[in-house]
Fold this protein.
Amino acid sequence: MKRDIYDEDHEAFRASVKQWLDRSVIPHTEKHIAEKALPREFWTEAGANGFLGLSIPEAYGGSEAGDFRFNAVINEELAKVGAAYPTCFGIHSDITVPYIVELGTEEQKQRWLPGAASGDILTAIGMTEPSGGSDLAALRTTAVRDGDEWVVNGSKTFITNGYSCDLVVTAVRTDPEKGPKGITLFGIEATKEGFSRGRKLDKVGMEESDTAELFFENVRLTDADIIGELNMGFIHMMQKLPQERIICSVANIAHAKQILVETLQYAKDRKAFGQSIGNFQHIKFLLAELFTQIEVAEAYIDKCVAAHAEGQLTAVEAAKAKWWSSQVQNEVLDHCVQIHGGYGFMNEYRVARAWRDARVTRIWAGSNEIMKELIGRELGL
């Protein structure tokens, strides 16, 4: 079934993204895996091509596309290369930067957005804590008033881009008595005294992504570093989470679809018992099921992307997209590994890496269990 979400402009943009990936990213993927990070050149070249500033106004060096479908296109293409690429890219461009664009002061926009658009300032979002997981309202990192300053103490973990970021939009507790209504977002620059990073975390998959622990020890900030309103951080995060979840969903399905296409070719080429394994009824029927699963899921995700581009996507719709896309992604990739047989368990095969990379998508951006809780509440349960 032909997808009708994208027009000629989107496809022309896709072609330019593919050209950049073929030229500057795909030849270096093994190096990215070995170094467990994307080099700064990845970001500055993406910035030079105008890919980082899709949500940033032209006045601050961005391209201000004004159409979320362009964001979806670049994340789809990145996902075809590997799951870590849209993860790192999305955290910067689609998740963190919009906080500054939509909530930042004029001074903050001038201070941070030009660098974010060029790739000279890499951003991360500091939500998750060692003891909190999906429970954002229970965070323990604090900011205490000391005269005209705020003193921040605490830690964050599982922070994508954490090891190399220059700016972290960080959720901290500014009023311990108010629960979720006592949380504030601060922009914390990595050069601040008292800010430090732990090691690059040793993950099961997504090795290209530099994921780290962050520590704040008496980091001094001012009101000029507050993003949005004081004690409104939890509300700000809840308003932004649908975009995070839909961009994850786009990448989930594009990632699985690419590996499935490659698995189809493998099934045609691999011979056993005198014929291509794809000719065996079990493999033929299984691939028929998997392609149907992907295309049905893709149709719903496309509908969500179109709704979000019009500002109409609800939090519950985004939750449905997030949990279902990650579920389909993991099921499809597990079958792809099985079709590859022993080779599917070898790291030198893309399918093995994709299978490992995908496991986390059922956990992050709110675990799938949390997504079902949100959907259940909407049902009146």
The chain has eleven helices and ten strands. Residues 108 and 224 are 8 Å apart (CA to CA). The mean pLDDT is 96. The radius of gyration is 21 Å.
